Amino acid sequence: MLKVKALRCEHLNNPIGLGCLKPRLSWQIESEKMYVSQKRFQLQVSVHPTFEPLIWNHFTYSDQSILFPYEGPPLESGQRYYYRVKVWAQGAGDTEPEESEWSESGFWEMGLLYEQDWKAQWITVKERSIHEQFQTRAPFAASKYFSVEGKVKKAVIYATSLGLYELEFNGQRVGDAYFTPGWTDYNDRVQVQAYDVTSTIREQHNRITVTVGEGWYSGYLGWQKRKDTYGNTNALLFQMKISYEDGRSEVICSDSSWEETSCAILMSDIYNGEIYDARLEQQAAEHSSLTERKMMQVVSFPLSHLIAQENEPVRVMNRLKPVELIRTPKGELVLNLGQNMVGWLEFKVEAPEGTVLNLVHGEVLDQQGNFYRDNIRDAAQQITYICSGKGTEIFRPHFTFQGFQYVKLEGFPDGVTIEDFTGVVLHSDMETIGVFETSDPKLNQLQHNIVWGQKGNFLDVPTDCPQRDERLGWTGDAQIFARTASFNMNAASFFRKWLRDLAYNQLENGAVPFVVPDVLKGTFADNMDKTTAAWGDAAVICPWTLYQCYGDKQILVQQYDSMKAWVDYIRAQGDEECLWDTGLQLGDWLALDSEEGSYFGATDGTLVATAYFAYSTHILAQTAKLLNRYTDYNTYKNLHEGIKMAFANRYFDDAGKLTSNTQTAQVVALHFGLVPEKYKTQVIQELVRLIEKNDMHLDTGFVGTPYLCLVLSDHGYTDVAYNILFQNDYPSWLYQVERGATTMWEHWDSIKVDGSFWSTDMNSFNHYSYGSVGDFMYQNIAGIDVLEAGYKKSRLAPKPPANLTSAHGKLETPYGTLEVQWEIVNKEMKMTVHVPHNTTAEITLPGVMEPDALQQIIVMQYPSIQYPPGDVPQELAGKLGSTGKQAIFQRSGDHEMTFTVGSGQYTFQYRCN
């Protein structure tokens, strides 16, 4: 039976507080048939769940089932809209398209769309206490009492802050989001969250309390200890719309009638942690009886900066039980969570009033097994809790987060146990869409480390690390990892929001900052300003990656001017138009072939810069063509050809050898298509020679590592790529696994072979960049890749490594589940693939058979069909029509076999070497 399922609006499930005026709607098709493709659809939108009357009824002949834009009447602020879909789809054996029933309805709800919709005022306290040690302003709390007159039909809160806020209504925390309103460049954009609180409102004695902390707005940011980056006044903006059953409505707004209330948080800073005095909780609870009333102060901040929430907010995503509570050789009490994580430690304790508890967070133990935190640099990462003495107390922090596996506990009573603690994992609530598993536990642990590196660093913006005094949105790290991130999680909205800030932070000349939001003010170090290749190229590579992975052409429209400005900026930098050979470049950052004491790899920085110049120009030309900007397409296509020629003339000698003879130089030249045809064999062989010279190990850094294994595999050296991947001594990915890593490291030797540490000035144990190898593992071991944007057409072509007996890859694409599972038992290959409806796939059977041997291939498929149309082998097409369940055909030789199929599940079995 044909069904429509998984309705989404702007990649989200039933969002409220939406800000886009033409939301895009997506759905998936469910059917027991194969080769199912959508022929037409009907889409209905109404303000009533009964769909009577309709405000938009759209019928069209189209196979589009993702990101179809609403084109009905203008949308209204605060209004909820219901939508449903039915499709006509044709499967194998159908002479006419089958009509589905209506889908279950989804909805979206608009936020406050226009400046005039706001009646609220920004408010703050008149005086703030300053914490003496950390020089941070204490959070403040504001409250409002009100009653309602009549039966409430609906109540929605719209809230934001300059800083971070938490909202409580009638004693209950409102919403499950944390670190709201999120980190944007507050000079241009401040997000607003919407909350439906209809079930919480009462007729009498309603109380709203909002607590506001400094957060990213005015707290410490960057290792230079910058403060007040966006301003020095934290403020709240709050508006509640109450709709009554009788048609009346009213609004409750933040204004000078709100009262300041007691707050038990004495200090809360993202880097330094939090100080909480539980003895002050009673004062807050008794606030209504206080004789001294302090009223809030109205402040000015542009309402024009307000935007609706754009990405999934940060939520509690996991809760971990610690694995051990130990006494170190120094006698310190240390808790081990067993996983390097990001979030908080929640605990319960019973202790006398005034007892001071300290929790100090770190990532590793040292060689002697003692608590270690020197790599955290100046970030205190400490929670101080002062007990109220009133029975069992439970606490979790508020406006701070820590990156840690180990916590040193100070001041806790003797009876404390491991059961008193829980690790609360926080990150942006992106849907997990990827699965990668193999028969090798170490490789599975590497995948685990990659995913947990993403969890720890995708906290509202893609940070480099989550623990030390940095935690910044480095552009290079983001673009390097974007494809792997999009295999693991649905990062479409996450990156869309971050890329908007990238465009806002871009300088007038097109230069892209090192970090976004740009708290470094365009400067990385005293002698490095503006930007550098591979980092600034995030402006082009990230939007293109999102388009490829999610089929979202709108992201290219949104970012096009930014993409073009970046390429034009590079164009103006070099001594020649087609070379970027000026300025100081980061090059292959942290590569192992660097000089002693240097962070810069041995690869010529201008070679890297010009290679990325070519790559971004090529992407820009393809984007221009896709968006029908043909003048730009011709301009940048010709520029790309010029860069290729200039690169060959500058960086190849007369013998066809690259002037910078490093692994990374060969990799970027090959991956970015810059090697003249006559030199390709020579260059790939030189790369292999350099790897062999290094005892089959890599020596690449941030630039070369993401593409190393991909280049080897794409040029016929998959065995060499696997040799590198499965190394377990230094330097390698599995070396980290062998040393007990649970996330990715910043350096290949963050922990050295002798157990000592890399330099304390830059040594993160949760730094996802080298996790970019996940892209290679999905594409080659699982065999999943995209051929047409959004996986409208996919490639399923696993290349089984000799030392694996099985692998399983699964990806929830916009169209549905794309899956590959293969297993080799007693020299018999069995591979099962699943292709989602309304898509096609190019399947390649691995060429692992004995040379020149006649092999029998069994193809099984479910359910029974009469005849599968499409580009399949003649033997397969003929046999499938005979039984519908199983086909047997033959081939000879050890070559790969490739053919295209429609949706459905297929199983292939044959003897292999």
TrEMBL record:
Please tell me whether the keyword Hydrolase is annotated for this protein. yes
The residues covered by the Alpha-L-rhamnosidase six-hairpin glycosidase domain are: 432-781
Concerning SUPFAM superfamilies, the annotation shows:
Six-hairpin glycosidases
Q: Which reaction does it catalyse?
A: Hydrolysis of terminal non-reducing alpha-L-rhamnose residues in alpha-L-rhamnosides
Q: What is its EC number?
A: 3.2.1.40
Q: Does the keyword Cell membrane apply?
A: no
Q: Which residues form the Alpha-L-rhamnosidase C-terminal domain?
A: 783-848
| Alpha-L-rhamnosidase concanavalin-like domain residues | 327-427
Q: Which Pfam families match?
A: Bac_rhamnosid (PF05592), Bac_rhamnosid6H (PF17389), Bac_rhamnosid_C (PF17390), Bac_rhamnosid_N (PF08531), Ig_Rha78A_N (PF25788)
PANTHER family from the UniProt entry: ALPHA-RHAMNOSIDASE (EUROFUNG), ALPHA-RHAMNOSIDASE (EUROFUNG)-RELATED
* Name listed for the protein in its UniProt record: alpha-L-rhamnosidase
